[in-house]
Amino acid sequence: MTGSGERANDFGSAISKLVKYMKRWMPAIVVSMVIAAIGTVLQIVGPDMLKDMTNEISHGLPALVKGQPILGSIDMSAVVNIAWLLVFLYAGSFLLNMVQSQIMAVVTQRISQKMRSDISSKINRLPLRYYDSNSNGDVLSRVTNDVDAVSQTLNQSLGTLISAVTMFIGSLVMMFYNNWIMTLAAIASVIVGFGLMLLITSRSQKYFVAQQKDLGAINGHVDEVYSGHNVVKAYNASAQASRIFEGINEDLYSSAWKSQFLSGLMMPLMTFVGNLGYVVVCVVGAALAMNGTISFGVIVAFMMYIRLFTQPLSQFAQVFNNLQRTAAASERVFTFLAEPELGDESGKARQLSDVRGAVEFEHVNFSYVPGKPVIKDFSASVKAGQKVAIVGPTGAGKTTIVNLLMRFYDLNGGRILLDGIPTDSVPRSNVHEQFGMVLQDAWIFDGTIRENLAYSKKNVTDEQIEAACKAVGLDYFIRTLPQGYDTVLDDRTTLSEGQKQLLTIARAMIQDAPLLILDEATSSVDTRTEQLVQKAMDDLTVGRTSFVIAHRLSTIRDADLILVMKDGDIIESGTHEDLLTRNGFYADLYNSQFQTPA
Amino acid sequence: MFRLFKYMGRSEWLQAGVSLVFVVVQVWLDLKLPDYMSKITTLVETPGSEMIDVWKAGGQMLLCALGSLVATVLVALFSSRIAASFSQTLRSLQFKKVDSFSMEEINRFSTASLITRSTNDVTQIQLLIVMGLQIIIKAPITAVWAIVKIAGKGLDWTIATGVAAAILLVMFAVLLALVVPKFRRVQTLTDNLSRVALENLTGLRVVRAYNAEGYQEGKFDDANDDLTNTQLFTSRGMAIIFPTISLVMNGLNLAIYWIGAALINSAGLADRLTLFSNMVVFSSYAMQVIMAFMMVVMMFILLPRAQVSAQRINEVLDTEPTIIDGTAQSGKPGLEGTVRFDHVSFKYPDAADYVLDDVSFTAKKGETVAFIGSTGSGKSSLINLVPRFYDASKGSVSIDGIDVKDYSHDALTKKIGYVPQKAVMFQGSVASNVAFGQDAPQRSETQIENAVSIAQAEEFVSKMPDTYDAPIAQSGQNVSGGQKQRLSIARAVYRKPEIYIFDDSFSALDYKTDKVLRKALKEQTQGVTSLIVAQRIGTIMDADQIIVIDDGKVVGKGTHRELLASNDVYRQIALSQLSAEELEKTGK
Description:
heterodimer; A: alpha/beta; Rossmann fold; 2 domains; six-stranded mixed sheet; four-stranded antiparallel sheet; 19 helices; 62% helix; elongated; B: Rossmann fold; 64% helix
């Protein structure tokens, strides 16, 4: 239904990259191709032997020799010999085909396994910057849809291509070998049919494109209207929505039947080409046979060759379409795999250890988009154990600071120092080790509670896990679960948003890092749990240098340093009192939360 | 499956009937071809035949082939038209049906599922009809007809054909039993793989912060191995099909000739020629039978999928909306702008517990009534009863003195300006979204501008190219969350309703915009009753009446100051957002 599918931007380069990627399996692929060719040759020889057999049989028919009807007899032993030879031939061809298709099935599956695995590890080697402009759905569709498309089309096209080419050339050779006049007649009839097919394919393309477009439009419209059902109803917009829908629906009807019709013509046309060839072979063959130029067996052989000869022609079209899809899909996969990765840091021997937690920002400059600086020449000094709050309206870029501290993004200028050591002089993983992190969206993965808490940290004891859960007040709850700490958290288990948040706090506690990043995550939590979460967070910050992204201003009044952000930039900084006396943006923001609109 | 066909129109049935005739014509002609083949064979082998007879037979054969082509083209034409127009009907019927649904039915199916049912499932049916008319109907006719034709020509050959068919049948049966269930497993494992990848993507920052890249990749590799192993099984299973088919076809051909040789050898002189031409003809009929047979098998593979789709479509079309319109066109005079809840209880269908329990209050014209409570306390459910997204299970909700159930849909919605929690935008322009439901000629430009300015959206709309005519992409993808929310508020203001309903519509705005917007609303749309659901104390503390909801019950009613002094739940909520000292200030 998807028509001829999409095309790669650069077919040649996509295919050559794919070939390079398949290097490891190349011997297997070559072997399977050779096998496919041999198998096909056996299949081609078949009709020729069937011809001999027919000729033997027709010896048994009454014939006129010099005007005198004479009765011949069938040489049954010759027939049986040929027949047995054919049995071995077909059996051999079957075995070879079987081996070939098994090899290709395995090879394509292994290739897609490797592709998926490469994409997965690529996900973690790309800078976060990549994800600013690419959606998760897009990456996900490469792991599943594109890889599937590659393996499916590859499996279908490679084997088919080889056997089709062999079949085409082989049957041509065999036909010429048998009789050149009939061969030319057969080719002429096939060319007529093939011309017709080309004509239709070129016509149908535009209807396929139109159908794809209309399908997209109707999906989009339905999505919009169904998702906004309450608004459509509340605003009495049903008639309007329905009118738009019927318009697209009518367009879709017209493009759908046209493309459907034209693609439906291919099969009957192929059959007709086959029939046409059949008739031509019969008539020409009969004429020649009556002249005595050929034996009747030649006609029988040709009737089969004409089928073997037309079959690859329709396969070529299919293989071509398939390879287009392979190229398009693998191009997307390879584009992703070729995205620039985070810099290699294996050369950085220096390590942070026993970090106390002093942080220094030195003339930091940063921009997400080149030419649009968001942080300009920012300097600040945070002593070990201090609490830094980052405030500002939604969309002000509060997470930028976190991104820079964690080296999720690289600075455009200046330095950030941890205990006097520039963070970019040590490996990223070493920087990450120094931080515990709790984000606004409590991120819990499919796995047991224990796995979620220890996460990637090695040698975490049960006591540590239980102690952390006691500290956040979850221990009792977890014990009431049927499997306790081994309960698997998936979409069936219903943890409240607050409980999830408490789990991520416990995770950060177990991590026991000297610095802490807290994205205050209390907006989706009910009031009672909110207080629990708040308290757990407060406990966690004791003795650690903490960076708190604050949504509610009341919680950060005691911070040692408040960074006020607006439109991506740090516009004010200082303590709560400092900022209030300055009577700037912070003071305005602070006061607006409890002022009644006068 | 067949129940769905009752939606097929008369012209579609007619076309289907005509195309059935052409299918029969096509099969007849296809099977006639070998007859001429046999004639030619006889001619060639008969001593003293005339070449002209061969030409004649060849010409007739070609005519047959052409005729068959024409018939097939006509069948393709009809079937694609029937399939396309039937799917157009199915889409349209479903769209209308869904439009008549209340939120209850929408949520029962889920929006995503309804979308699939209206689009992909219909496409499945379309595919089946095209295949159906061209192949599924043709195959059995061909098979039966061809068998009838060859049955008399030689028992031994028929048996050979039967054996070939049986071998194929066994192969398909084995595949159906072993491989098809694994296909379902592949789907589950693919979902699993996507889930693991998505988990990594959504938790990207956490994964990196905890240096857990290796951990996640290990998880992915496990899922990947599971998937690959299952897919290996299925694709190796499927790889058996084509070599086997080719073997059976070749084998059958050989068998027919082998048997033929023996038959001819032992036959009398007079029968030899007939037997010989029978043999040649038989081999081509036998191929037709086997091909038709395989098509029937394919049908059995295709049918279940279409059947599932048909069932899903039927489920939508068979669902009757639970909310039926009333007839009242206007409320009681003198009571305009009044919203009254009288002992209202509500539970979702099939749910055990009430979400709302005995809620009563009255909002008078021009008043602002705010609802606050923790997540899941039932405040959104409460407000959804006013525009009849759901109906109250007990008690009554009335507007202007008349129960909402008694109003016609038009009359009811005209009174209400509803702003949902999640702003919804539609493809079109700023103007078409603000004056939503009205076509361009009916729109009032000044009214649109006024609404946009009250909703504090003028600042960004004026910066957009073409300002009010600026295009809005599908689902509003080209505007930010806060901008969408402001446009969605402008939409409510534009229709000059008696009652505003804000379902937590302000939390996407920052404190300042929130404040300015509410001030403008208050000043410029006086006399309009507002019902506000909110999370932020700051948003609601100036309301005329605040209703505190906890576990579906009203646990407090009053102004900010009254509740602060007397209500524990309210105090708790307030304290979680502001310090005691700050609350002190607001109480003044």
